[in-house]
Amino acid sequence: MAVAGGLKCVKFLLFFFNFIFWLCGLALIVVGVLVQVVMHKTPVISNAAGSTAPLAVIGVGVIIFFVAFFGCCGAWKENYCMVTTFAILVSVIIIIEIAAAIAGYIFRGKLNGILNTGLKDMISKYKNGTAEIRKGMDDLQQCLKCCGANSTADWISFNPNGNSVPDSCCKNITKNCGLKNMHNKTKVYQLGCRVALEEALKKNLLWVTVAALVIAFLQIMGVVFACLLMRGIRSGYEVM
Predict the structure, then answer these.
(1) What digits encode the pLDDT tens for the residues 32-86?
(2) Which end of the chain has less neighbouring CB within 10 Å, N or C?
(3) What is the largest CA-CA distance in the chain?
(4) How far apart are CA 179 and CA 68, in angstroms?
(5) Burial (0-12, 13-18, 19+ Cβ within 10 Å), 227
(6) Angle formed at CA 50 by CA 44 and CA 21, multiple of 5 degrees
(7) pTM for this structure?
């Protein structure tokens, strides 16, 4: 027996919600893949903990993608079993996302140490390491307009004179521009790359938070609509 009246509206709202939910799942997969690619291209965040978050986002995105499709079918066919399963699965996803948010908060506390360790490791390997490490550090310093891990003093072993930095630390890059200019504020960036990286990551934190709140709201509304539809379908069965 098909639902009628207000519940018919709920049915279409649930169907529309699932379409938006499906798009959110697709968006999470894309964002997770992009973040994973960026992290793999950044030698600084080579720690395994740095790859956990984007992989978790991709995993949740895939689950949401298929659960939303399942929910669409259940709403359209008015199948009590499918709608109930959908509501349970979305509730489980919400719990998983809360756990992921807690893990993300914990990782945020460790981010400072991970960045500091990664940057200092790159600095120690800069002269005798691979061309990839040198290029990675040079690109990072030029892009973020920074020098060293915490300050230019991190490059004290770069040259025997103890007062030189790589040319990539210079505001205007020319050959040997960093020679004996470690503390020259007019020629060399004094901000450490750890601070610059943290600031760059924090700028994106607001957008990530907003996106997470929107998705959480949609998920909760989906569970509410599913429960209402389940009640309507069950009432229809009882009438029959």
Answers:
(1) 777 766 655 555 554 444 556 667 777 878 887 888 887 888 777 777 888 888 8
(2) C
(3) 91
(4) 59
(5) middle
(6) 135
(7) 0.55
